[in-house]
Write a structure and sequence with these properties.
GO terms for molecular function: aspartate-semialdehyde dehydrogenase activity; NAD binding; NADP binding; protein dimerization activity. With about 325 residues, the chain is of the alpha/beta class. It has eight helices and 15 strands. The structure holds adenosine-2'-5'-diphosphate. The site of adenosine-2'-5'-diphosphate has 18 residues, from helix 1 and helix 4.
C-alpha cells in the first residue's frame, strides 16, 4: 500500500491533469483526497471508478494522514496552506511559483535533476517545487546537451497555449472563436485582449527590466536548476490561440563544439525524449497529432523541435500538457 495523496486544486485544469497522470502511470497510492476552495466543497468527482467528495482546503485537519500533497491552486494558496501540510508531515509538491526560488526548496524536474531531492523523505514534511511549464519543457532537451557541451547562452521564444492559463482560459478561447466567427465582439474575461485569431505577449506582469514574469522565470529557474548563475538567457514568451500544448524555439550556444549527430545521440538517450525526424516529407508532429482526439490520455506529452531539423517527442511528469519546439541552430557557429 502506497502513500496517501492529496490534490490541492483538484477541480482545476492542473488538478485534473494530476489525476490523469496518477492513473495513467499506475501510481501506487493508498488513498486520494481532493481539496479545493469552499466554493467546490461537497462537489462529487469520480476517479478510477470511485466517487470522491471535494473537501475544503481550509477545513481543520485537511492534511491529516496525507503523505504527499500535490498543490496547484495558485501561489497565494500554496503560501497560505503548504506550511500547514508540511507541519502535518506531508511532502508538498508545489506547482506554483511561491517557493521555487527559496534556497531551501529543491526545484526539480524528475528527468533532469532528481538528485536535488535526495534528502526528501516521506513522513518528514518538506516542500519540493516544480518549475514553470516553459522551463520544464525547455530543460528536458537543453540539459542533456548542456551536460555534454555546456550552454553559455540560451535564446528562447515560446508559443504558449491556453491550457497554461487554466480551464477558464481554454473556455474563453473556445467562446471567442465562436463569437468572432459569428461576427460578434469577443468576450475578454481572462485576457485583456482578443485571444482567438491573435497572438500577444504573455499575460504575466511586466517587471521593471521590461521582461514579463514568465520570461524571467525561465532565466532564474534555469540558473537554479543548472546551478549556474552565469549562463546567459533571454526569453520571449507569447500566447498563441492553441488549446493545449506549448511550443518553444530554443537557440543554444555551447562552450564546446557539438555536431548534429552527437546532439541526436545525446537526445536519443535522454529520459522522456524521443526524436521524430521526417525531413524528407517535411512532416513533423503537430500539437493536434500528439494530443490526439482524446486529449486526456496524452496531455502530458510534449514535442521538441530542433533546428538541426529533428523533432523530439518528450513525455515528462509535468502536470500540464506542453509542446516544445527547440531550435538548436548551429549553435557552435554563434
Ligand atoms: P475551486 O474550483 O474551488 O475554485 P484553474 O487553474 O483551472 O483555474 O484551477 C484552480 C484550482 O485552484 C481550482 O481547483 C480551484 O478550486 C483552486 N483554488 C483557487 N483558489 C482557491 C482557494 N482560495 N482555496 C482552495 N482552492 C482554491
Amino acid at each position: 500500500d502506497g502513500p496517501s495523496v492529496a490534490i490541492v486544486g483538484a477541480t482545476g485544469a492542473v488538478g485534473q491533469e494530476f489525476l490523469r497522470v496518477i492513473s495513467s502511470r499506475d501510481f501506487p497510492y493508498r488513498s486520494i483526497r481532493l481539496l479545493a476552495s469552499e466554493r467546490s466543497a461537497g462537489k462529487r468527482l469520480s476517479f478510477e471508478d470511485r466517487e470522491y467528495t471535494v473537501q475544503d482546503l481550509a477545513a481543520p485537519g485537511a492534511f491529516d494522514g496525507v503523505d504527499i500533497a500535490l498543490f496547484s491552486a495558485g501561489g497565494g494558496v500554496s503560501r497560505a496552506y503548504a506550511p500547514a501540510a508540511v507541519a502535518s508531515g506531508a511532502v508538498v509538491v508545489d506547482n506554483s511559483s511561491a517557493f521555487r526560488m527559496d534556497p531551501a526548496v529543491p526545484l526539480v524536474i524528475p528527468e533532469v535533476n532528481p538528485e536535488a531531492m535526495e534528502n526528501i523523505r516521506l513522513g518528514k514534511g518538506a516542500i519540493v517545487a516544480n518549475p514553470n511549464c516553459s522551463t520544464i519543457i525547455c530543460l528536458m532537451a537543453a540539459t542533456p546537451l548542456h551536460r555534454h557541451a555546456k550552454v553559455l547562452r540560451m535564446v528562447v521564444s515560446t508559443y504558449q497555449a491556453a491550457s497554461g492559463a487554466g480551464a477558464a482560459a481554454m473556455e474563453e478561447l473556445k467562446l471567442q472563436t465562436q463569437e468572432v466567427l459569428a461576427g460578434k465582439a469577443p468576450t475578454c474575461n481572462i485576457f485583456s485582449q482578443q485571444y482567438a485569431f491573435n497572438i500577444f505577449s504573455h499575460n504575466a506582469p511586466i517587471l521593471e527590466n521590461g521582461y514579463n514574469e514568465e520570461e524571467m522565470k525561465m532565466v532564474k529557474e534555469t540558473r537554479k536548476i543548472w546551478n549556474d548563475k552565469d549562463v546567459k538567457i533571454t526569453a520571449t514568451c507569447i500566447r498563441v490561440p492553441v488549446m493545449r500544448a506549448h511550443a518553444e524555439s530554443v537557440n543554444l550556444q555551447f562552450e564546446k563544439p557539438l555536431d548534429e549527430d552527437s546532439a541526436r545521440e545525446i537526445l536519443r538517450a535522454a529520459p522522456g525524449v524521443t526524436i521524430i525526424d521526417d525531413r524528407a516529407s517535411n512532416h513533423f508532429p503537430t500539437p493536434l497529432e500528439v494530443i490526439g482526439h482524446d486529449i486526456s490520455f496524452q496531455a502530458h506529452e510534449h514535442i521538441l523541435y530542433l533546428d538541426f531539423s529533428f523533432f523530439i517527442h518528450a513525455k515528462t511528469f509535468s502536470p500540464l500538457d506542453q509542446w516544445i519546439i527547440i531550435e538548436c541552430s548551429r549553435c557552435y557557429y554563434l
